[in-house]
Design brief:
There is one protein chain. The protein is mostly helical and 189 residues long. The chain folds into two domains: 65 residues, no CATH class; 98 residues. It is 66% helix and 0% strand. The protein has nine helices and no strands. It is globular.
Length: 189
């Protein structure tokens, strides 16, 4: 399910935000996550090898069988939301709402309830509409003019790198462990 969240759900979210990829880019994106799943030892039967439509079908099948409200799921969602709120840039009075607004936009209402995503008040709903309008307009402009504007690729790369560095710098109360593949998953095993 987690693997499908990184492949299918991200693609679906981008579409919802007005970020449209070409079909071959979607296929390549899902393929990349299939490779990750293979390296992690995910059974071939749980990899959507036929592409994005298969990823959507697999996600919906797993979700239909496994969706449930759990204290752990709500706690993990709350922790993630609070982390994202802390990482948002100033002015915090405005940006701290972004994770909740996006969760309420990109997740279906049932999932939001299962995960205890806070409900939106009138101000939040108006802010969400404004935010989504800006994101969709930026995406449209980027899509139409991206290749004609010098430096946009470098700018996008720097923004992505900055987000990743901020994420890696988050304190983990002394529990930062290096990522290592289990020996059984390495090529020499």
């Amino acid at each position: 399910m987690v693997l499908m969240t990184f492949s299918h759900v991200i693609l679906r979210g981008w579409e919802d935000l007005g970020i449209h990829l070409k079909d071959n880019e979607k296929v390549a994106y899902v393929h990349s996550w299939n490779v990750v799943g293979h390296v992690m030892g995910v059974s071939k039967s749980l990899l959507p090898l036929e592409g994005p439509a298969a990823a959507a079908e697999l996600f919906n099948t797993i979700k239909g069988r496994q969706k449930a409200r759990t204290p752990e799921g709500a706690k993990l969602t709350r922790s993630l939301r609070l982390l994202m709120e802390r990482m948002n840039p100033p002015p915090k009075a405005l940006t701290r709402r972004l994770p909740r607004l996006l969760m309420r936009e990109l997740l279906d209402p049932e999932t939001c309830e299962l995960l205890d995503v806070p409900k939106l008040g009138a101000f939040d709903r108006a802010a969400r509409a404004t935010l989504l309008g800006v994101v969709r307009a930026f995406s449209l402009v980027r899509h139409e003019a991206y290749h004609d504007i010098a430096g946009t690729g470098r700018l996008t790369g720097r923004l992505s790198e900055g987000i990743l560095k901020r994420l890696l710098a988050v304190p983990r109360m002394g529990n930062r462990q290096p990522f290592r593949l289990p020996e059984r998953l390495t090529p020499d095993a």
